Amino acid sequence: MQRTYIRTSAVVIAAVISLASVAPAQAAPADLKAKADAYLKSAYPAAGPGAAVIIMDDGKIVYAAGQGLADIEARKPITPQTVFRLGSITKQFSAAVLLQLVDEGKVSLDDKLSKYLPTFPKPGADATIRQLLNHTVGVQSYTGIPGWMVEENTNRPYTTEQMIALFKDLPAPSKPGEKFAYNNSGYVLVGAVIEKVTGKPWHQAVEERLTRPLKLGTIRYGVGESGFPNMAKGYTDGEQGPKLASKIHMSVPHAAGALVGSVEDLAKWGYALHRGKVVSAGSYSSMIAPTKLPDGTTLPYGFGLSEGEVRGRKAVGHGGGIFGFSTDSIYIPEEDVYVAVFTNSDDPQTGAGTAMRRLAALAIGDPYPDFKKEAVDVASLEPLFGVYTFKEGERRFYARDGQLFTQRTGGPESKVFYAGGDRYFYGPESLNWFQIRRDPAGAHVMEMHQNGANQPERSVRSGPIPPEAPTAAVPRATLETYAGSYSVGPATAVVALQGEGLTVKLGGQEARGLRPISATQFRVEGVDARVTFVAENGGVTRMVINHGGREMSAERVKTGS
Fold first, then answer.
1. In sequence order, what DSSP letters do the residues of 373-432 get, joined into one string?
2. What is the pLDDT of residue 2?
3. Mapped to the 3 state alphabet, what secondary structure does 128-141 carry?
4. Given this model, what pLDDT does residue 554 score?
5. Is 21 helix (H, G, I), strand (E, B) or coil?
6. Cβ contact 502:471 at 8 Å
7. How far apart are CA 319 and CA 90, in angstroms?
8. pLDDT number for residue 194
9. Cα separations (Å) of 54 from 1, 265, 348?
């Protein structure tokens, strides 16, 4: 134990010395800078919410830039020094502190939660520290409590005890270790264990053990963020354009997502973490190791980090999403390249993950294909339309009003554009593309490159798309009884009467039409989903949503449109 503690302390000291020698930002190679600049300008508007990005190669910052505005009203531009909410990137910091305590012999990954929180009820009390970290804890995630994630609840401070009280007595969705389910409550519990062992608030432990020794001046607990230098404002997409996002007190995301910081400091953090300068080699291996479930399933998630790939190279990283902000980061060990992208919108023009992957591919000299739209006679593609079957489900390929679409089982329909050579892509904001070929037997085969992956997912055309159920006639008076707000997990779905029909709008998403199949059941246009309105005690009390093989009850919280 003593030897481990000394080694960990030496690691932190070495990190400070090493980071002090990290070269400052230097001029990027001309081709990288030109291509990255051009991409950034195409991905984010100059006069709206935008992004800060950074690329580090072999410990040196080779590209750092900002695009768009950190504060639209004040016309303040985004720079690499702009501070954003990190969201779930916070989890790797919380995990690292807990793993330092493991390295010091103060905690074991096999300890039960009950050792540190003896009043926490079963079955969650039997979850191990490992299960808190890898999202197999089996407690209810508080961000998934129906109707809870609204300003009325989120815009006030909470103690750790108050956060735990939100979920500890709720029914357990699974036994500890049985299933993987991304879980913010698990990381509130990570923070609680840190506090129990250190005797300090979790964020103070992060500061004392990580950000202060590593001189990461902008990475800090987000409470009081409005007074922080260079802090960006967070936006969401409104009907008239960007608007300020819903308010949240930064005690609410807790150890699951409450840190803020700049891309520059996150790159320095990545340099220290992935060079073995934060936790022991064994603990770092645990952070990036996949999670194995009792049924033999393996999932690419470790402790606050997950496995992935960029252009065939193995990678490790994590993203974050929180009111007003979306972030992502990735490290490619083979190339020793680290990339981070932070956006100050929770519905950005280009997702942080898409921008991050494109910039990472540019940095390693292996860019993703850049498709251009080409004209095509849609009628000539009819032999290709139909249902394509693969191991996990089906994908439909079709056209409507001259526009191409695909729709995967349980998902929304997505617009597709022809790129020539039997290739199709989903627009500049997506890396996905596919090609349709014929196999030796003459069947059409769709080769889907998810996230631009080199190896495609193959699906074979199994037949034409079956006809839709006929539309039923439902009296307007009946439709009026369905209008209102319904609680769907952390979001609210608004059902409104538009003309002679109904629409449904979930959170900040676009409104979609509801096409009646019967007097109570409706198909959601453009989404593989059905909703059924349920009347009880003389009035409509909820709607049942069937989507992707799941059934979810959404309680009515307000009547009328």
1. -----GGGGGGG-EEEEETTEEEEEEEETTEEEEEETTSBEEEEEEEETTEEE--TT---
2. 26
3. EHHHHHCCCCCCCC
4. 87
5. coil
6. no
7. 9
8. 98
9. 39, 10, 18
In sequence order, the β-bridge partners of residue 484 are: 495, 559
Backbone CA torsion sign across 153, 154, 158, 161: positive
pLDDT at 559: 66
The answer to whether 262 and 230 have CB atoms below 8 angstroms apart is: yes
- Reduced to 3 states (helix: H, G, I; strand: E, B; else coil), residue 189 is helix
Residues 399, 416: Cα–Cα separation, whole Å = 9
Closest to 37 measured CA to CA, from 64, 2, 7, 10: 64
Q: Length of the chain, please?
A: 561
Largest Cα–Cα separation, the chain: 77
Q: Tokens for 506? A: 């979930």
Structure tokens at 243: 């608007």
Q: Tokens representing 318?
A: 């994590």
Over residues 181-235, the pLDDT tens digits come to: 999 999 999 999 999 999 999 999 999 999 999 999 999 999 999 999 999 999 9
The CA-based angle 110-113-117, given to 5 degrees, is 145
**Tens digits of residue pLDDT in 493-550:** 899 999 889 999 987 678 899 999 999 999 998 888 899 999 988 899 999 998 867 7
Angle between helices 281-288 and 90-103 (to 10 degrees): 140
Which amino acid makes up residue 213? P
Distant-in-sequence, close-in-space partners of 389: CB < 8 Å, separation ≥ 6: 459, 460, 461, 462
Q: How confident is the model at residue 492 (pLDDT cuts 50, 70, 90)?
A: confident
**Block residue for tokens 């039960």:** 112
Q: Does pLDDT of 27 surpass 80?
A: no
pLDDT reported for residue 526: 85
The span from the CA of 347 to the CA of 237, in Å, is: 6
**Rounded distance between C-alpha atoms, residue 392 and residue 352, angstroms:** 26
Read off φ and ψ for residue 71, nearest 5 degrees.
-145, 105
Under DSSP, the state recorded for 199 is: S
Task: Answer yes or no: are the C-beta atoms of 532 and 544 closer than 8 Å.
Answer: yes
Which SS3 state, helix, strand or coil, does residue 57 take? strand
Q: Which residues pair with 410 in a beta bridge?
A: none
d(CA 308, CA 54): 19
Q: Does the pLDDT of residue 129 top 60, yes or no?
A: yes
- The predicted-structure confidence for 435-477, as pLDDT tens digits, reads as follows 999 999 999 999 999 999 989 999 999 999 998 878 899 999 9
22 pLDDT band, cuts 50/70/90, is very low
The Cα–Cα gap between 541 and 557 comes to 8
Find out whether 150 and 246 touch, Cβ atoms under 8 Å.
yes
Give, as one character, the DSSP assignment of residue 279.
S
Chain centroid to Cα 211, Å, comes to 24
Tokens 């009325």, located at residue: 152
Which residue, 114, 132, 121, is CA-closest to 177? Answer: 132
User: Residue 306 corresponds to which tokens in the numbers above?
Assistant: 């997950």
Q: Report the SS3 class of residue 495.
A: strand
| Distance of alpha carbon 400 from alpha carbon 557, whole angstroms | 35
